[in-house]
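Wed. Picked up where I left off yesterday with NRDE family protein. The coffee machine is broken again, so keeping this brief.
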Amino acid sequence: MCLMTFNWLDHPVYKMILVANRDEFFDRPSKPIHYWDSGIYAGKDLRGGGTWLGIHPDGRFAAITNYRDINNIRKDAITRGNLVKDFLEGDDDPYTYLEHVFANMHQYDGFNLLVAKDDRMYYLSNYGKEIVKVNPGFHTLSNILMNSDWPKEKLGLTQLEENIASDRLKPDDLLALLKSDIILPDHLLPDTGATLEQERALSAQFVRLADYYGTVNTTALLWGHDGTVTLKERTYTLAESTEDNLINFIMNSVNQEL
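Structure written out below (tokens, as returned):
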């Protein structure tokens, strides 16, 4: 993922309310969110084999964004999608898992990783200094450290706050968020090693960078305190057509999918 905003443990009905955009090269093959043989629900990067966001019916959740530092790309980096997949398919508690990642995080290009189990969520970036507990409330994550002041993050936070305040929490309500194509003026752009043209395009919530890179899907997640989970993913094409994928299941249920 490259932009997400979420509410964690701060709603009477939902443990987690999340909406997230995934930005990627259009020619990188992937599979939409689906049920894996290992028991998780996640999309799949068909080149690296990992995933960007997923959830397990045992109460595990994980998601990742890239930390953008184009001038310091590692030649032999391990695919970051494995960080999500390995947590979801494993049995470590969130903090212990991130301790293992922390010890080896120099092997990866820049990342921001969220992992949760039941009511415990932690965050780690290999551009940060420590494992951070994620407290109840609203949070944002993009291609810099969590809860930054990047305008597209601040806008995403406002969008989600307004939806929750007005009880517009159907999956399609959430999928309508993070769609702003407003580009920042040059003097407000970050310097992440990208070209000026790229920095301009990447400053929007919904990214379109020529015909080779941009927002390829948006995911809405509603995780209820009662264990019900709704995942809806909307995939976009260069022709501006869309395809939706809806999954419902119950946590810790033998017959999970509804």
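Quick read: The helical segments are 81-89, 94-104, 151-165, 171-175, 196-202.
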